[in-house]
Design brief:
Elements: E1 5-12, H1 19-30, E2 34-41, H2 50-57, E3 59-61, H3 67-80, H4 82-96, H5 103-123, E4 127-131, H6 135-145, E5 151-155, H7 159-162, H8 169-175, E6 178-181, H9 184-193, E7 202-204, H10 211-214, E8 226-230, H11 239-251, E9 257-261, H12 267-276, E10 283-285, H13 291-299, E11 303-306, H14 315-322, E12 327-330, E13 345-348, H15 353-365, H16 368-385, H17 388-404
Parallel strand pairs: 1-2, 1-4, 2-3, 4-5, 5-6, 6-7, 8-9, 8-11, 9-10, 11-12, 12-13
Helix pairs in contact: 1-17, 3-4, 3-5, 4-5, 4-6, 5-6, 11-12, 11-15, 14-16
């Protein structure tokens, strides 16, 4: 079967926190698809992971051209495709209504769509898939309205679910060929904002984990009392609350070491909080690290702790479980679909410092045999639900259907029972 040529459209690619997109693209290429990487920005970003650096070289950037080039793309599209251009201007204007971003920004999205329209014609792209229901989905929608290929997009959350109206989520679903949720919870949120007639477009496709995690032989959990938290240092990941919970453990005389693997906009505040809580000898911040370094940090820890306030379904939870590490996290979004209390980890109410401290103390004081058994159960569950090639095959079925029956009513294309 001939596979269609598709384009992946992302706001910034590659990016440290977007390795799951790279895995998805590579899995589709293993299935025979030709995948073009398009992004708005990221050509000058630092890439500590060699795999991301390789992807950067393969990516075309919509905003790498000068502003005059973007203006030229708008004028060229107006002259060569006036009817579709006017319809796209109208659609961009509709998206600006009630948006947090003013009309000129949406006009810039249209300019990007005009550039992408030219690229799609040059390389024969038959479908565009955007990651995130924010501006990439709008650019893909405007590109399709210009007469470009049909589009789809993956919604991760939580941003799309925090402001679905200002992002015009329903409009994007309406114009799409299909839309992907990464969890059953995410699918339910898309049902909330999609017209009932568009529900069949909503597909559940999990993020896949890389072979460096699935093929790695899990190492026995060491007896030392180390926990690791992997993620961007920001409000929604809950690292500040984690530091306060660690302070409770310190007062209780519990031995521990915490590694914060990552970086982000709240690093200065978190460093100050670590000092204020007298935890400088017990908490270490790594800064941005590669996927291989994340693996080493997870293997050196007793468990992953992720006290998030808002999420989609964090890939790092899948990675930790694949490496045989229990997980301490919160009853948020899709996390309970993967983490089962008492079986492969602990779940606590988001924002509850005492409950988080209790769960960490239970983990730190549990015998290694118990933790290894929990880690083995977690590995089995994540391998069943998050194989990169299996999930890519679900997407492939959707792309294939879009290419062959663009004018037919939408039908579920995820094989088997989703969720």
């Amino acid at each position: 079967m001939t596979r269609p040529a598709i384009a992946y459209l992302v706001n910034q690619y590659p990016k440290v926190s977007h390795s799951f997109i790279r895995r998805e693209i590579l899995a589709l290429e293993r299935l025979g698809f030709v995948v073009h990487r398009w992004a708005s920005r990221g050509w000058d970003a630092d890439c500590p992971d060699p795999a991301d650096l390789a992807e950067q070289r393969r990516t075309r950037y919509l905003l790498a051209a000068s502003p005059l080039s973007l203006l030229a793309a708008l004028l060229r599209t107006l002259l060569t495709n006036p009817k579709a251009f006017i319809a796209s201007v109208r659609l961009a204007w509709q998206c600006s209504r009630g948006s947090e971003r003013p009309w000129p920004v949406h006009l810039a999205y249209l300019a990007q769509a005009c550039v992408a329209w030219k690229w799609a014609r040059e390389v024969g792209v038959t479908h565009v898939h955007a990651h995130f229901g924010t501006n990439p989905a709008e650019v893909a929608m405007l590109l399709s309205a210009l007469g470009g290929p049909p589009f789809s997009f993956t919604v991760h959350g939580p941003e799309e679910f925090d402001k679905p109206k200002s992002l015009h989520l329903q409009r994007k679903i309406q114009h799409s060929a299909f839309v992907v949720a990464i969890s059953s919870y995410g699918r339910s949120q898309l049902y909330r904002w999609a017209a009932l007639a568009d529900w069949p477009k909503v597909q559940a496709v999990h993020c896949g984990i890389d072979a460096q995690f699935t093929d790695r032989v899990p190492q026995p959990i060491k007896p030392w009392a180390r926990l690791v938290c992997v993620g961007r240092l920001c409000e929604q990941k809950g690292q500040s609350l984690l530091i306060h919970a660690m302070q409770l453990l310190l007062k209780q005389g519990v031995a521990f070491e915490l590694v914060l693997a990552g970086d982000g906009e709240m690093r200065i505040e978190i460093e100050a909080l670590i000092r204020a809580c007298s935890l400088t000898e017990r908490v270490r911040i790594t800064g941005w690290i590669s996927g291989e370094q994340v693996s080493h940090e997870l293997e050196a820890a007793r468990a992953l702790v992720l006290p998030s306030f808002a999420e989609g379904l964090p890939v790092v939870i899948m990675e930790a479980m694949a490496l045989g590490r229990p997980v301490i996290s919160t009853f948020v979004a899709g996390i309970p679909e993967l983490v089962r209390p008492g079986e492969n980890g602990w779940l606590v109410p988001a924002g509850d410092i005492e409950a988080l401290a209790d769960a960490m103390r239970a983990c730190l004081q549990a015998p290694p045999d118990q933790l290894n058994a929990m880690g083995a159960a977690g590995r089995e569950r994540v391998l069943q639900r998050h194989g990169a090639d299996v999930e890519a095959a679900k997407l492939a079925a959707c792309f294939q259907q879009s290419a062959s029956s663009a004018d037919m009513p939408a039908m579920p294309c995820t094989p088997g029972k989703p969720g």
